Amino acid sequence: MQYILAINPGSTSTKVALYQGEEEYKVKTLRHSIEELQQFQTEEEQLKFRKEKVVEFLKEEKIDISSLAIVMARGGLSKPIESGVYLVDENLLHDLKETPRKHASNWAAKIAFDIASEAKVNAYIADPVVVDELSDIARMSGHPKFPRVSVFHALNQKAVGRTYAEKLGKKYEDLNLIITHMGGGVSVGAHLKGKVVDVNQALDGDGPFSPERSGSLPVGDIIRAAFSGAYTQQEMISMVVGKGGMSAYLNTIDAKAVEEAAQAGSEAELKVMEAMIYQIAKSINSMVVPLQNKVDAVILTGGMAYGKWFTGKITEYVNHIADVEIFPGEDEMWALALNANQVINNKITPKEYGYTEF
Ligand SMILES: Nc1ncnc2c1ncn2[C@@H]1O[C@H](COP(=O)(O)OP(=O)(O)O)[C@@H](O)[C@H]1O
Ligand SMILES: CCCC(=O)OP(=O)(O)O
């Protein structure tokens, strides 16, 4: 029996899955707490930890590495590229190691490559977080030195957009959708007929705050803090990614626990949840502009979309725009398997990442 192995490290979780053709064999989500992640001092240490989790999963499932047909990984913060499937090669691995923007997705291709090499098969990424379809106007930030860049949950947003279109018997490329992924990071994408023409830079750029990120911050105050001598560069970056947002206010990245506490009447948790909901709703509203006021649906997805109270509150703010559809969790593992099958069955030709200067 041949298996597709899919590997998806997120900021708060490691997701691993095995498929046989298009049939799901096993999907596992490991959630990581702040305490668990804070033990790691270096990128290498955390890469090793995440890889061990994947190897343990294969052992638990008694999967011999020689039975893998292909290994698929979520793509990380390499250079901006078009949507599609890419072979994991030395150029891609180089950029994922050297990229200044650190995120768990950067490790996926390396873990996949190592396992695939042992299995003597190929590893691929699909719709990485740097898929770039921004319109020229959305690319302008307000200063030519700092153009806006596209960093978001491209794999899940596109997969969920296609699933929604299929449900309607329509094509994703014929719809205008505002898709919001709410995980460790939050991205709000304006999908104009199949292209994400605007989206917040969901890692260290802009947009709503999230379980582990600050989202947009007052820039002048940040510059003054950075030059005050009170903080190292790493401390400043951590305030934005890792220890920003909910983590900064409440010292947890577990939105489920925070939502439960808020509902049980805890004021501190309620205040933070309400502010995050408010910021997400404001971002969703802002995406009506790139969609030229014609929106077919607003879609909420990602781990936090499991929260009924949470999605209910966002829905109240945004249901005047269009129908609100909720896809809890993510279609990422399925999307990776689907792309794997297309490669195996020669339905698509994987792209080559190539080499350019950062
Ligand atoms: N049932 C649930 N209800 C509310 N929030 C949830 C639920 N399950 C997971 N979450 C929250 O979703 C967030 C993680 O989302 P996920 O999309 O899995 O993130 P990532 O891929 O970034 O690790 C966490 O803050 C987690 O607590
Ligand atoms: C870097 C953009 C993707 C992202 O934020 O992923 P997670 O929510 O899984 O951390």
From TrEMBL:
Subcellular location: Cytoplasm
Coiled-coil regions, chain positions: none
EC number(s) on file: 2.7.2.7
GO annotation (BP), single: acetate metabolic process
A single Gene Ontology CC term: cytoplasm
A molecular-function term among this protein's GO annotations: ATP binding
Sorted UniProt keywords: ATP-binding, Cytoplasm, Kinase, Nucleotide-binding, Transferase
Pfam families the record matches: Acetate_kinase
Catalysed reaction, written as an equation: butanoate + ATP = butanoyl phosphate + ADP
Family to which this protein belongs: Belongs to the acetokinase family.
Protein name: Probable butyrate kinase
Species, as recorded: Flammeovirga yaeyamensis
